[in-house]
UniProtKB/TrEMBL annotation:
Organism: Papilio xuthus
InterPro entries: L-xylulose/Carbonyl_redctase, NAD(P)-bd_dom_sf, Sc_DH/Rdtase_CS, SDR_fam
Gene Ontology MF annotations: carbonyl reductase (NADPH) activity; L-xylulose reductase (NADPH) activity
Keywords, ordered alphabetically: NADP, Oxidoreductase
Subunit structure of this chain's protein: Homotetramer.
Keyword Signal: no
Family as reported in the entry's similarity comment: Belongs to the short-chain dehydrogenases/reductases (SDR) family.
A Pfam family reported for this protein in Swiss-Prot or TrEMBL: adh_short_C2
The keyword Cell division is assigned to this record: no
Gene Ontology biological-process entries: glucose metabolic process; xylulose metabolic process
Protein's recorded name: L-xylulose reductase
Length: 244
């Protein structure tokens, strides 16, 4: 797929850390004109310093109007990857409204906002684009302390289905990926406790967590024309966890 995305302009939210950074760098390697959007100004600066040809945009996606303004100013895109997200963990009986609202705002509402702007320009410019959003296995299975997170990711799956139905007639595909634990820098810290990690891995038939590149590869596939008939899917990247 050398230079496969040449002359394609793709926006990646949450693009300077974790899965988002991995997607940005792989798209850059494949020749895309990539824009990394994040609220992490320092990490965006580091990314830009290392890869000057990658565009960056800094905005807090919780701010509906400002985010809309920034994304609109970036122009037309052939693809969008919604990676920006937050994981706030509280038990069901103790979950605070602020925790729930924050989770929905970043993990779901921001996807609605950004995808609306990008999709409208795709339609106006007759671009048969692709939108990929990061969901989670937690949208499809119950986990302790995940009530707000699971609700927000369930919303991602539901929005993906609706986007597929409504945008499909315009030639725009919308899909989601649903990873298990991913060994980003943060993921390694959260799951550093080997007892806790082994307990979780025992529920995964492949017996391990996902590496970042394994999620990135799936996203790249869904963005590409190689997935031209895949629309409205929620693709597990979980080593078989949801099959058990």
């Amino acid at each position: 797929m050398d230079k496969y995305f040449e002359e394609k302009r793709i926006l990646v939210t949450g693009g300077c850390s974790g899965i988002g950074r991995g997607v940005v760098l792989e798209l850059w390697r494949l020749g895309a004109n990539v824009v990394a959007l994040s609220n992490q100004a320092e990490n965006l600066y580091k990314l830009k310093s290392e890869y000057p040809s990658i565009e960056t945009a800094c905005v807090d996606v919780r701010d509906w109007d400002k985010t809309r303004q920034v994304v609109d100013s970036l122009g037309v895109f052939h693809g969008l990857v919604n990676c920006a997200g937050v994981g706030l963990m509280e038990p069901f009986l103790e979950c605070k409204p602020t925790t729930f609202d924050e989770s929905i705002s970043i993990n779901a509402k921001a996807i609605l906002n950004i995808s609306q702007v990008v999709a409208k320009k795709m339609i106006d410019n007759k671009i048969k684009g692709s939108i990929v959003s990061i969901s989670s296995q937690a949208s499809k299975a119950g986990f302790h302390d995940h009530v707000a997170y699971s609700a927000s990711k369930g919303a991602v799956d539901a929005m993906t289905r609706v986007m597929a139905v409504e945008l499909g007639p315009h030639g725009i595909r919308a899909n989601a990926v649903n990873p298990t634990v991913v060994l980003t820098e943060l993921g390694r810290e959260v799951w550093a406790d080997q007892t806790k990690a082994k307990q979780m891995m025992s529920k995964i038939p492949l017996g391990r967590f996902s590496e970042v590149h394994e999620v990135v590869n799936a996203i790249i596939f869904l963005l590409s024309d190689k997935a031209s008939m895949i629309n409205g899917a929620q693709l597990p990247i979980d080593g078989g966890f949801l099959a058990t």
